[in-house]
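@channel sequence for tomorrow's demo:
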Amino acid sequence: MDGNIIEIRDLSYSYPDGTLALQGLSLAMPEGKRIAVLGANGSGKTTLFLCLNGLLRPRQGKIFYRGEELRYDKKSLLRLRSRLGIVFQDPEIQLFASSVRQEVAFGPLNLGLEEREALVRVEEALCLTGTKDLEQKAPHMLSYGQKKQVAIASVLAMRPEILIGDEPTAWLDRQHACRVMELLHEISAKGTTVIISTHDADLAYSWAEEVIVLQKGKLLSSGPPEHVFQAGEMLAAAGLGQPLLLQLFLLLKGKGYILEGAAAPRTPEALAGLLKGGS
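structure tokens (generated this afternoon):
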């Protein structure tokens, strides 16, 4: 468990209709990292997140949080959910209050905090997510991108140790998608472990520090993105493509424009630096 905030051992889950969503899944998630869970639709990403949060109870296997096995009594689940928060793919299913401020205050107030402490957390979450100017507005009147930001704020106000985002850029335009990913990067920089699901290899490659690839509920690969994404056959089996930046790096390296032994770059600027250095 050294350095890992979550460990999963032999996890399996079947839905009532018989669909086997997770099959003997074992993996570890390091603390304080940006982690992307990748896979095609139906690979088990959302089911995994719901199991981590205790909303689903696996058929077999165990989940450990900081070395302590997850238990399913009410007290244990409440404690877990105060430390591990999920922002669902569709923010509208978790927004219900009459104003943004009330929405963000709901979680900390229900932790039993004094009102003064709860309000400090609300202000902190509103400012970090850039939603302070929306605090008196009704959530259902916001744009879809703003709803995503408010949903994130409502989870941040709980000050979780882990923030999970299920397809955080789904249905967002480029501007709002970039803002959400920048926000998740900022949250990670403050020490929170941030885990997202996505099928976007380019997004995962540029953002994540650790990548987990699933296929039909099974673990195909995990590790640093610059290593995982070089396994072309594995990616094809998972229904994923290789990030364009990595493809370009490998092409240029193969043609001799980049020196052998150079590490795969994670940004266009880093790739340009390799070309300049090798010229």
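heads up for whoever presents: The chain has a mean pLDDT of 94.
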